[in-house]
Write a structure and sequence with these properties.
Layout lengths: L2 H8 L2 H18 L3 H32 L7 H33 L4 H31 L20 H7 L13
Helix pairs in contact: 1-3, 2-3, 2-5, 3-4, 4-5
Length: 180
């Protein structure tokens, strides 16, 4: 398993887990259910911890994929810039959640107010992580990049003079295409 593989495995947890934790936290706060609130807070701390190796494997993953066909260098840079913001928002969510867990443990009245602050951090983190994930998807998935052809229509491959001279036809490579 290389860093790109590890990055792809781990990077799905934060953008999926934070919204799930947000729902659990909201239900826990509305029902005054301390178990649900604690569950959400622990989940946020774990997701913040997972975000660190996701971020750390990003640069090595870039080195592996940047030369591959269909990979957008511009998308990599946009994703990298956004990922740092995602790391910061998720770290803030994890730190706030840890503080709230400690306050709950000591039965401090500030714990409930912290819960609503954590909701705000979770909303920001979820939005940021969704943005980061979308930018990450654009690295290899040209169909979701802005400017992609409309649904149901495919872009024809562009012919270069070298390609047409090498293959003697528009589509290039492989066996002779009878459609010509």
């Amino acid at each position: 398993m290389n860093p790109a593989h590890l990055h792809l495995i781990l990077n799905h947890f934060p953008p999926i887990g934070v919204p799930i934790g947000l729902v659990i936290l909201l239900v826990g706060l509305m029902r005054h259910n301390e178990t649900l609130v604690r569950t959400a807070l622990v989940l946020f701390v774990a997701l913040a911890a997972i975000t660190v190796p996701v971020h750390m494997t990003g640069e090595p993953a870039e080195e592996i994929v940047e030369g591959l066909a269909g990979v957008s260098g511009q998308a990599i840079e946009a994703h990298e810039d956004a990922a740092f913001i995602g790391l910061l928002t998720t770290a803030a969510l994890g730190a706030g959640s840890l503080i709230a867990l400690l306050a709950m443990r000591q039965r401090r009245p500030v714990a409930r107010a912290l819960g609503y602050g954590i909701v705000a951090l979770a909303v920001v983190s979820a939005g940021t992580l969704t943005w980061v994930a979308n930018l990450g998807g654009e690295i290899r998935h040209s169909e979701i990049r802005s400017g992609a052809p409309p649904s149901g229509k495919t872009a024809k491959p562009r012919e270069t003079q070298d390609d047409s001279q090498k293959s003697g036809r528009v589509w290039g490579g492989g066996e002779h295409d009878e459609r010509e």
